[in-house]
Design a protein that fits this description.
The protein is of the alpha/beta class and 803 residues long. Among the domains are: 205 residues, Rossmann fold; 107 residues, no CATH class; 93 residues; 127 residues. It has 25 helices and 15 strands. The strands form 3 sheets. The protein has a 6-stranded antiparallel β-sheet, with helices on one face. It has a 6-stranded mixed β-sheet with strand order 8-12-13-3-14-15, sandwiched between helices. α13 runs parallel beside α15. The protein is rod-shaped and about 220 Å long. This is Nuclease SbcCD subunit C. Heterodimer of SbcC and SbcD. Pfam families: SMC_N.
Length: 803
């Protein structure tokens, strides 16, 4: 596998630049929405150091610690600031992880191992044996810049957070803090440090936490932050709109409970699609709408119904009756006088005409003569006066009758008022209708108007009261509703001022969201592809294969989905993985981003990454480290000797350093030579030690010979098995089954614990002599010489060279 398959080799276009390109290519986005997208990008970019860091590659050169964690007096770990693999090993409690924690604290200001353990670490971060002074120094080299140091120190009695940090380039003056390095954003995007705790917690937070972690690894917070910023702007801008909509809903509810026709019209207006017509709503609220004015005018007219008064009715009826009686009396009187006078005068005149002057035949006393003629003329005059009186009475009767008829027509019929229930109006109209049904006779008419118009007057009073009540009810019930409606108009008008802006921001957020989904997974795919290749190396002996890695959903529905298969059957990857597999997967996801070509960090630091890995995965892990080390400085802290053993056995080029802790928290870093060679050195030391009693030498030397030979044989055997592509677990089982030194030599040389070693032993004199001393007992090794120690050395080197 070439290194391009594991580490990034080309510059990755920034998310900001990609979004700008997508904006430029999109001809459909509204200009206002486009401007809001640009403003969001400017805002969130302003909160970061940008995704593009300094191109100068930076390596680690030293880590120096004093008085911190497990390190007392000053201890220094020298690192080679160049691509390559370095393993820093040491038992638990040796102080090796204190170097890693010091580096992480100096770079990031915290330690992932301390996460959620604040109270505990407040008490234990200073070294118990040597708490003062307390300081950290981390040396770096950067191409084109040279060497520089990041320091952190604490005064006596200071708390963990009460510290002073600084940066110094060469011999220049120290600058406070680390801001001038511009690493704040790069440390978020391309964090070069990964601890065992972080490996274990990557998947603890569930799909949403993994989503966030991957988004950060991909540098996609720009999109997420832009969405959040636009969402916040929507919330701010939408305040007026939300208020108007909420009040409109409450107003519709209140109006729906009213029987007022204006309330119903208001509900119809408020529910109109596309928004309520403000002018119509306002006219309705203020009563300036045509229909509302007509209803109010009609009700007010009803409160002023004109009908005859009781006095008018009584006077008219009395007048009519009197006129009728006068006419009747005048007619009767006129009729009686006229008949008598006509009869008498006619007879007398005839008699006078025939007989001349003579005595009155009726009374016998008067004479029908000239005087009589005069009197006759007077009678005629009186008769004419009676006729005039009769005619006058007839005229008065006609007028009285007209007045009575006019009273019945004075009360007009009432028209209904739209939307207003007025049951008394029907009673009134019925009374008016009855009053207008006039009889023919004058006396009957007088009685009719008295009977019916009194009813009309009462009905009119009831109708007026009803109209008045309806008018007041409308005003009393409608007034508060109208006030609320008018107030809502003001709120709605204010909201509409921001509707255009709100629509533009909403469109901008939708644009970012819609393009984020495919872009996230497009950006993720390159890392996912590298992760799958790394996983194939790390998954040795695992039945789980890694498939697609996708980011789905947004906000509270966001999740990372890792698909996979078990023995070819599709499944979700995470639920079926063991702890070791999860750690391996976390590494597979971490390494591609940490090795991004955009990152200024050309170093990767892993603290105890193999704790939960089985031997097969360690083999794959070493292969991955070897590839990464071609382009990056890889530093692995490990308390597990399995890593160093696999590196030696597979022949991977690596520098091995051992951290040793002595009494009083004295920590020393030294080269960790090959175990077999180290044991050979111990043999030379024993041989050269003249003060060592022979008896002790005789007891110690065989064991040392055996340890050296078996260590070399084991490394040779494992290396040959690895090169042959055989599973490590098989090699371990074979080695454990071979109990004797000769059997283990046979495994290393021939691959068979029962193979004959005669040829190999006889090929070189030192080989058989060395095996003899390995098996020496009870004083047989009492006289071991330097030459025999050299025989051991040559035999060990021969074994280590086997492939």
């Amino acid at each position: 596998m070439g290194n391009s398959e594991i580490t990034a080799t080309g510059q990755e276009q920034s998310v900001h630049d990609v979004v700008l390109r997508m904006l430029a290519d999109d001809q459909d986005i509204d200009a206002d929405a486009r401007n809001w997208v640009l403003e969001a990008l400017a805002e969130v970019e302003g909160n970061t150091d940008g995704t593009q860091a300094s191109p100068a590659p930076t390596y680690l050169s030293t880590i120096s610690v004093v008085g911190f964690r497990g390190i007392g007096r000053q201890a220094r770990l020298d690192l080679h600031p160049t691509p390559g693999l370095m393993v820093v090993s040491g038992r638990n409690g040796s102080g090796k992880s204190s170097f890693a924690e010091a580096l992480e604290l100096a770079l990031t200001g915290t330690s992932y191992r301390w996460h959620n353990k604040a109270a505990l670490w407040e008490e234990a971060w200073r070294n118990l044996h040597h708490p003062e002074p307390c300081a950290i120094r981390v040396g770096f080299t950067a191409e084109g810049v040279g060497t520089f140091t990041v320091g952190m120190e604490w005064k006596a009695g200071a708390e963990l957070t009460d510290r002073t940090s600084w940066t110094q380039t060469g011999s220049d003056q120290r600058l406070p803090g680390t801001a001038d390095l511009g690493w704040s954003r790069p440390l978020e995007l391309w964090r070069p440090i990964l601890s065992y705790e972080e490996l274990g917690r990557l998947f603890d937070g569930g799909p949403s936490a993994l989503y966030d972690a991957l988004s950060k690894l991909l540098g996609l917070e720009v999109l997420t932050d832009a969405e959040k910023w636009l969402g916040a702007q929507i919330k701010l801008t939408k305040t007026a709109r939300d208020r108007a909509d909420a009040e409109r809903k409450e107003l519709v509810k209140a109006l729906s409970g009213s029987d007022d026709d204006r309330a119903q019209r208001a509900v119809t207006l408020l529910r109109k699609r596309g928004g309520a017509p403000i002018d119509e709503v306002l006219a309705l609220a203020t009563g300036s709408d045509d229909e509302g004015q007509r209803v109010v005018a009609a009700l007010r007219a009803l409160t002023q119904i004109e009908v005859p008064s009781l006095d008018d009715v009584e006077t008219t009826a009395t007048r009519l009756r009197s006129a009728r009686e006068t006419v009747d009396n005048a007619a009767h009187t006129l009729a009686d006088n006229a008949a008598q006078r006509i009869d008498v005068l006619s007879a007398a005149l005839q008699l006078h005409e025939h007989a001349g002057d003579l005595e009155c035949p009726l009374c016998g006393e008067g004479r029908l003569d000239g005087e009589w003629a005069t009197r006759t003329r007077t009678a005629i005059a009186e008769t004419e006066e009676s006729l005039r009186e009769y005619r006058s009475a007839q005229g008065e009767l006609a007028q009285a009758r007209s007045a009575a008829v006019r009273l019945t027509t004075l009360a007009g019929m009432l028209a209904s008022v739209p939307g207003v229930d007025l049951p008394r109006m029907a009673d009134y109209n019925a009374a008016v209708d009855a009053a207008r049904a006039r009889p023919d006779g004058d006396t009957e008419l007088a009685a009719h108007i008295e009977a019916t118009l009194i009813v009309v007057i009462g009905a009119a009073e009831a109708a007026r009261a009803e109209a008045e009540q309806a008018l007041h009810a409308r005003e009393d019930e409608w007034a508060p509703l109208a006030a609320r409606l008018a107030a809502w108009v003001n709120v709605e008008q204010e909201a509409r001022k921001f509707d255009g802006t709100l629509n533009a921001i909403t469109a901008a957020k939708r644009w970012v969201t819609d393009r984020s989904k495919p872009f996230r997974n497009q950006r993720l795919e390159s890392i996912a592809a590298q992760a799958r290749k790394i996983w194939r190396l790390l998954r040795q002996e695992s039945n789980v294969d890694l498939g697609e890695i996708t980011l789905q959903g947004t906000a509270t529905h966001r999740k990372a989905v890792l698909s996979g298969s078990v023995d070819g059957e599709p499944t979700k990857a995470l639920p079926v993985m063991s702890q070791g597999e999860l750690h391996a997967l976390a590494l597979a996801l971490f390494l591609p981003r940490a090795t991004s070509a955009n990152s200024p960090f050309r170093f990767i630091v892993l603290d105890d990454p193999i704790q939960a890995m089985d031997p097969a995965k360690i083999d794959g892990f070493v292969q991955v480290l070897g590839e990464v080390a071609k382009t990056h400085q890889v530093i692995v802290f490990s308390h597990d000797d399995r890593l160093a053993s696999v590196i030696r056995e597979t022949g991977v080029d690596a520098r091995m350093v051992e951290v040793v802790r002595e009494t009083g928290s004295k920590v020393t870093a030294r080269d960790n030579v090959n175990p077999a060679r180290r044991t050979v050195s111990d043999v030379f030391a024993v041989v050269k030690d003249d003060g060592l009693p022979d008896e002790i030498r005789a007891r110690v030397v065989p064991g040392l010979f055996r340890m050296a030979v078996e260590a070399a044989a084991k490394q040779a055997f494992y290396a040959k098995q690895s090169l042959a592509g055989r599973p490590r677990i098989d090699a371990e089982q074979a080695w454990a089954s071979a109990k004797k030194t000769s059997s283990r030599l046979a495994l290393a040389i021939h691959g068979d614990p029962g193979a004959d070693l005669t040829g190999w032993l006889d090929a070189k004199r030192e080989r058989r002599n060395t095996l003899r001393l390995c098996n020496a007992v009870h004083g047989a090794a009492r006289g071991v010489s330097k030459d025999e120690a050299r025989d051991l050395e040559r035999t060990v080197e021969t074994l280590l060279a086997l492939r």
